[in-house]
Each structure stands twice: as structure tokens, then as C-alpha cells.
């Protein structure tokens, strides 16, 4: 590993002499720029480069999380222009492997955030920063069980099937519910991280299951659409709804009782620590292979406490 990092440092220094490269550019490439969650990652990444001159930071992502080919192109373009390092939140665990491999072959260090790569891509990046999504899913499941008991129906409104974060988050939620109760799981339904799609899907689920006791929206746009559908159906407060992520809309839903809680990741920390990890690698320093950026369950009772306010955005 030390030999590899040293080689990367030399290659990055050489890359800076290329006319097409931005001096010291660290490319932060996320799943989409059209989300407050990812804009909060941007804020953290910007904070990491503030006050120093050795590196600049660029922030980019496709128009939607389902535009996987566009994200692949963004990574390949970053490699082609010889950036110093890449911080990447892969939209698809398999599809991004070849692009990350190209970065590895070009001796450009890559740090993965939020969602993991497939097993065949693990040798091509140097660190992974994420919420422990399985633990987060279990945390939400335990909250659901404490609210609804061990019987009835619970719907799962998910986002993009097969994404690393979704596999852990939703998979471990469902497994925990199944292990600890006789609850019937309805779904998962996949919104493709589109709020309007989640709203329509939730409206249909509520209409088709008037005996639903609980519902889980597994990421920001999905949870917002779910919450709006619950309000429109007049079921706010009568069904236990739990969300994921912590923008202003979801905070309002927690405060007014539409959501019993929302699990919030350290999105700012993903950006800040991700860029800092790249800078450490470029300096020849050791970086942990996995860095847990944490999760907090925000409820009406604790939402104003400092440890929760620190992760909301």
C-alpha cells in the first residue's frame, strides 16, 4: 500500500504539468447535484480545501441518480484531464468499476463515499467513507418496531435497486423486521430517487393498503414524496412513517408529526473527510480503509439537541 501511494504521489505531481489538468484538482463526483444531501457534501468538500493553496476542488454529478452512464462519463473525463484525486459516490456498484479502474491505472487516488463498489472494484480505490448503512437500516427498523409492535403491514419506499447504500439500508431494515416480528413487508418500491415518483407510489400504496401501520422512505427525495403523500391522504400522525436524510422538508415533517423520525447521515462529513483523505494520500500519509461517518435518528423529542442539529442541513 505504501509503495502504491508513493507511486500515486509522483504520478499526481507529473499530471499537474499537463496542460489539460487543473492545478491540484480534486474532483468530487456525486450521484446527482439536484439534492440538498449532495449539496451538503459539496459544502463539506469546500470546507476541506478552504485556507490552503495546494489543491482546488470541483464538484459535479449527473442530473439524476439514475443517469449512471453520465456519472461514468464524469469519472472518465476527470481521469482524462489528469486530476490529482477523485472523491466518488457511485450510483451503481458495478457500472462504475471500469471507470475507477482507469483512475487506478492512471495512478490517481480514489476515495469512495456513501455507496460501495462491487467486490471486483475494491482493489482500485484507497478508502471508503460511509454511514454503516446496514446499522442505519437496523436503527430505523428498531424505531419502527417500538412504534407499531410486531404485527401488521409496513411498506418500504426505496430509491434505486442495487445501489450499495440501498442494499445495506433497505436490506437490513427488512431483515431486522422479519427477524423480530410477524409484520408483512409491502414492497420495496423504487422511486429512482424522484420525489414525484415516490409521491405517486406512496399514494397508490396507501390506497391499496388501508390497514398499513408503518412506512419507511429510504432516502431524501423518496422520504419527501412519501411524506407529502401521507399529508395529502390525511394520514399524518395515524401511520408511523420514518424517513432517511435531514433536509428542511424532512425536519418539518418530524416537527409536525408526519414523520416519527428520520435517520440522518453525516453528509457534510462525507465531503470534508473524503477530500481530506485524498489530500493525506497525496502527502504520503496513511488513511483508514473504512471511515464511518455515522447516523443519527432525529425525532420530535431530540431534533433541537446539538448532536442532531450538527448533521441536519
Written description of the protein model:
With 313 residues, this protein is an alpha/beta fold. It folds into two domains: 2-131 and 266-294, Rossmann fold (3-Layer(aba) Sandwich), CATH 3.40.50.2300; 133-264, Response regulator (Rossmann fold, 3-Layer(aba) Sandwich), CATH 3.40.50.2300. It has eleven helices and twelve strands. Strands 2-1-3-4-5-11 form a six-stranded parallel sheet, sandwiched between helices. It has a six-stranded mixed sheet with strand order 7-6-8-9-10-12, with helices on both faces. β8 (212-217), α8 and β9 form a beta-alpha-beta unit.
* Overall 3D form: elongated
Q: Fraction of residues in helices?
A: 40-55%
Tell me, what is the CATH class of the largest domain? Alpha Beta
> What is the SS-derived class?
alpha/beta
H/E series: HEHEHEHEEHEHEHEHEHEHEEH
CATH arch. level architecture of the largest domain: 3-Layer(aba) Sandwich
Largest sheet: 6 strands, parallel
Domain Periplasmic binding protein: 26-285
Signal peptide: 1-23
Organism: Roseibium album
Keywords: Signal
Q: Which secondary structure elements does this structure contain, and how are they paired or packed?
A:
Layout: H1 2-15, E1 25-29, H2 36-49, E2 56-60, H3 68-80, E3 85-88, H4 97-105, E4 110-113, E5 127-130, H5 133-148, E6 153-158, H6 164-180, E7 184-190, H7 195-208, E8 212-217, H8 220-232, E9 240-244, H9 248-256, E10 261-265, H10 267-282, E11 290-292, E12 295-298, H11 306-309
Parallel strand pairs: 1-2, 1-3, 3-4, 4-5, 5-11, 6-7, 6-8, 8-9, 9-10
Antiparallel strand pairs: 10-12
Amino acid at each position: 500500500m505504501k509503495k502504491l501511494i508513493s507511486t500515486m504521489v509522483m504520478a499526481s505531481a507529473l499530471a499537474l504539468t499537463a496542460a489539460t489538468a487543473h492545478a491540484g484538482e480534486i474532483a468530487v463526483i456525486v450521484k446527482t447535484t439536484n439534492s440538498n444531501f449532495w449539496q451538503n457534501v459539496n459544502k463539506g468538500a469546500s470546507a476541506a480545501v478552504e485556507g490552503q493553496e495546494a489543491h482546488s476542488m470541483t464538484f459535479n454529478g449527473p442530473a439524476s441518480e439514475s443517469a449512471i452512464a453520465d456519472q461514468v462519463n464524469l469519472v472518465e473525463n476527470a481521469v482524462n484531464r489528469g486530476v490529482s484525486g477523485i472523491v466518488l459516490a457511485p450510483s451503481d456498484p458495478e457500472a462504475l468499476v471500469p471507470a475507477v479502474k482507469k483512475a487506478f491505472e492512471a495512478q490517481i487516488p480514489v476515495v469512495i463515499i456513501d455507496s460501495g463498489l462491487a467486490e471486483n472494484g475494491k482493489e482500485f480505490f484507497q478508502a471508503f467513507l460511509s454511514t454503516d448503512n446496514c446499522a442505519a437500516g437496523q436503527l430505523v427498523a428498531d424505531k419502527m418496531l417500538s412504534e407499531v409492535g410486531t404485527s401488521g403491514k409496513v411498506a418500504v419506499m426505496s430509491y434505486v435497486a442495487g445501489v450499495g447504500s440501498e442494499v445495506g439500508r433497505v436490506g437490513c431494515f427488512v431483515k431486522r423486521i422479519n427477524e423480530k416480528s410477524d409484520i408483512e413487508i409491502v414492497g420495496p418500491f423504487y422511486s429512482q430517487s424522484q420525489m414525484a415518483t415516490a409521491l405517486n407510489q406512496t399514494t397508490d400504496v396507501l390506497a391499496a393498503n388501508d390497514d398499513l401501520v408503518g412506512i419507511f422512505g429510504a432516502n431524501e427525495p423518496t422520504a419527501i414524496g412519501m411524506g407529502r403523500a401521507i399529508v395529502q391522504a390525511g394520514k399524518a400522525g395515524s401511520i408511523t412513517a420514518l424517513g432517511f436524510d435531514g433536509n428542511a422538508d424532512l425536519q418539518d415533517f418530524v416537527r409536525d408529526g408526519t414523520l416519527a423520525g428520520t435517520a440522518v447521515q453525516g453528509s457534510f462529513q462525507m465531503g470534508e473527510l473524503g477530500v481530506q483523505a485524498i489530500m493525506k494520500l497525496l502527502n504520503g500519509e496513511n488513511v483508514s480503509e473504512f471511515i464511518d461517518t455515522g447516523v443519527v435518528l432525529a425525532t420530535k423529542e431530540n431534533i433541537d439537541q446539538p448532536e442532531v442539529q450538527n448533521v441536519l442541513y
